[in-house]
Amino acid sequence: xxxxxxxxxxxxxxxxxxxxxxxxxxxxxxxxxxxxxxxxxxxxxxxxxxxxxxxxxxxxxxxxxxxxxxxxxxxxxxxxxxxxxxxxxxxxxxxxxxxxxxxxxxxxxxxxxxxxxxxxxxxxxxxxxxxxxxxxxxxxxxxxxxxxxxxxxxxxxxxxxxxxxxxxxxxxxxxxxxxxxxxxxxxxxxxxxxxxxxxxxxxxxxxxxxxxxxxxxxxxxxxxxxxxxxxxxxxxxxxxxxxxxxxxxxxxxxxxxxxxxxxxxxxxxxxxxxxxxxxxxxxxxxxxxxxxxxxxxxxxxxxxxxxxxxxxxxxxxxxxxxxxxxxxxxxxxxxxxxxxxxxxxxxxxxxxxxxxxxxxxxxxxxxxxxxxxxxxxxxxxxxxxxxxxxxxxxxxxxxxxxxxxxxxxxxxxxxxxxxxxxxxxxxxxxxxxxxxxxxxxxxxxxxxxxxxxxxxxxxxxxxxxxxxxxxxxxxxxxxxxxxxxxxxxxxxxxxxxxxxxxxxxxxxxxxxxxxxxxxxxxxxxxxxxxxxxxxxxxxxxxxxxxxxxxxxxxxxxxxxxxxxxx
Length: 566
Prior knowledge:
Blueprint: H1 19-25, E1 66-69, H2 85-90, H3 92-95, E2 110-113, H4 140-152, E3 156-161, H5 171-178, E4 190-191, E5 208-211, E6 214-217, H6 232-247, E7 252-255, H7 272-288, E8 293-296, H8 302-305, E9 317-319, H9 321-333, H10 337-349, E10 356-357, H11 368-371, H12 376-388, E11 394-396, H13 435-440, H14 452-456, H15 462-475, H16 477-481, E12 483-485, E13 489-491, E14 496-502, E15 508-514, E16 523-525, E17 531-537, E18 544-546, E19 549-552, E20 559-565
């Protein structure tokens, strides 16, 4: 991603409670903490007609590479064993130092921060104050400093925003649960008696939980009561929350549990009212922040994910879960069937595949290196496949090092601390034992050399491989913005995969991979043009062009090539 970066004007913006929220507070006190006037840090965007929704095709994110960070596990600045915002700020130069001429940064363009708000849990997906910062991570001033430092390097920042539910310890819910006449009662979904016939769409347990004078709805568990988005006061309040963070300089939001915002009795996911709600939020934000990004975490089939595009007026990006699964399956089984089919389905969902946010794994998955059997060759091939896909790619912190994480299926094992240096026991993460080691002991051994300093010094490391792929994507617009097709392959076996990326009337880049554990002999790819090798592993002889096809003499095991076609 290397478009010109928009400079946000800095000035004071006073936060105002919307009328509907005021009405909801009548007869009660404001229980939500942290409702303060934000400092200057993110003025409303200068942009086009505020009544015209910016097409998904024109946003800043279209050429970017995102990096997901769990702040608790990234870097600890104060020695308490927990990562924090100041620690992340101190490590920004490793992610992007703002100088394209240097070779010591990864080159990512935007950060996605997992929840940073106060929360009773280690992970933060049960929020108690939407306008606050978890004190273990720092303060609002620390957040402002991080955002300013990221922007100074040309990096955007988006926040994980949990719109579906709050914590059961949120002041709103504490009041609602204790008193059935609370003015906050209708911020949640209640029934006087326990409803029947509800099937949890997440595969979890019961969705109805006992509370004061009835039962409340919580699709994930009792500690995460769902907000009642049919109450206009909830919509007004959370819209103001979004504007609060945008005013501080945030560039957008990853919307957690996007499928579950509005439910209709026993119909709990993907409801029409959920789509209508997102359209209203998108339109309202667009009035002041037309370049604010909304990313949907809609963990479902590509066909269903595609509905969250709307008419280009809902989410600008949505995670591509089927593409992620298909990349790993094809790399593991050595055949193209899964990745070919996933791309076929995705291409039929929406006409604009730039809507997709491809990734390999995230904080909810066992880490990709563990799923690939700790094979460096598979990890390098999976990364190449990721950067060949259309859309805006997302990386999970530590993925670029080949971290395997903890040995079990606990969420904590998927979110272990970042390794910065070889020094045991905290590997440069902290001057103390990390939160993970305090809780679980030394149960997350990583292979020698799985740390930033070691891999920066090794030209052949996985970290430098990711860095080269990011630089390649930045250098060739066809890879970030081009259309995608899958040209016919003749010969080579079922492990050969090809994808053509091309800008209309412009650059064309062909990606070819051999997913198999064995080298393959001669094959052809049905596309024309004179090839120039841009990046490769395992391509001993460049292909030749003849009669509208490229002829390859062969391709090594688990290898790939990016070629510009002139």
